[in-house]
Amino acid sequence: MKIAVIGTGYVGLVTGTCLSETGNEVICVDINQEKVKKLKEGVVPIYEPHLDVLFHRNMKAGRLKFTTSLEEGVADAKIIFLALPTPPGEDGSADLRYVLGVAEDLGKIIRDYKIVVDKSTVPVGTADRVRSAIAKNCQTDFDVVSNPEFLREGFAVDDFMKPDRVVIGASSERARKLMEELYKPYVRQGNPIIFMDERSAELTKYAANAFLATKITFMNEIANLCEQLGADVDMVRIGIGSDDRIGKRFLFPGIGYGGSCFPKDVQALEKSAQESSYDFRILKSVMEVNEKQKTILLPKIRTYFKNELKGKQFAVWGLAFKPDTDDIREAPALYIIRELLEAGARVSAYDPEAMPNVKASLGNSIEYAANPYDAAAGADALLICTEWSLFRTPDFERLEQALKNKVIFDGRNLYTLDQMAELGYYYSSIGRNTVNGNKS
Fold first, then answer.
1. 289 with 361: CB under 8 angstroms?
2. Does residue 174 contact residue 32 with C-beta atoms inside 8 Å?
3. Which of 18, 138, 261, 385 is catalytic?
4. Which of the residues 86, 226, 281, 370 has an alpha carbon 20 to 30 A from that of 64?
5. For 3-40, what is each residue's pLDDT tens digit?
6. Interatomic CA distance for residues 110 and 167, integer angstroms
7. Rounded to a whole number, what is the distance in angstroms from the first to the last CA of the chain?
């Protein structure tokens, strides 16, 4: 099948690449000439495990191409995916200018039947607006479909190639049949393709992300309560996670959620509720708690250092909002770093993938180390902000030699309390007792 993907951001590039992997002819369109030039040269602009392998294989086979021309991109395509940015506006609502702008342009240039697919995360009712925008200038039949993405950064290729489910909102039988044909190769193990109306499909994406964000936030609240009551959040997590009505996933406490989806989607859903005169109180609380959770380590740091942070040096392990990505959008590490810098502290950081993106944001206000131990050299304390696998089993002897003080503030609960006590660290984590193993 011939497919066009409009937008080569995270979702667009993963979508286009994975669609080409099953034999489809895919052309991706982007207005950024420099980006398209690099893509044509084989440069993958984002870090996502396994994406580069599929990207280069399908480019070599001629199934994956790139252009800056919308007209060229959609000329022969039967299905057109819109994978465009929907950034939050000042009021929290999703900004649809890019989606609707391209929709209007499509109406002027399509000459035969096409399916236009909203792949971007968009508010309820967007399919109707896209349909109207295309129809302004369109002289041929077309359908608009909602097909929300459920890609986890760090697992996006697996999520696309072997999805738990595919959600498709479509009104016409013609569009349903073509979309089912497109997705059949990805659900051979029996996972469902779920058909519904467009509005329900649009809400499904927001509802899924809002629920997961709520689950994370609830567990962070439990962790904070554990510290007040002297309970251990790890034990509580195991206790409730064994209940199959709750499940084990998304119960790990930490320093809040970040990234491109949860913050934006929770905010947009709450805004949609406002516009419908519905008071979505749970989501308001989720946003409030998560904002505070991002810097939950700072009061602990200030208490330990008796509010004297000026001149102190802190090592930070992990800058991305989660492991296996270079995405730093709404990353808790950046919130913590900015407050440390404002307090007059110095920061040396290490992340396997995200340092170039942080340097573009923070410049040379912090040091960027070549490895975790260089980041820790001479530091008064180590802060762990992202649970990269290489941080789970460090060389503690080498770490001890690097650090000025054996002090760790762990925002991801990577180590056991017994281990830290035995090694003689002052160890403060989330929802657990503080270990004062370096007490003389």
1. no
2. no
3. 261
4. 86
5. 999 999 999 999 999 999 999 999 999 999 999 999 99
6. 26
7. 70
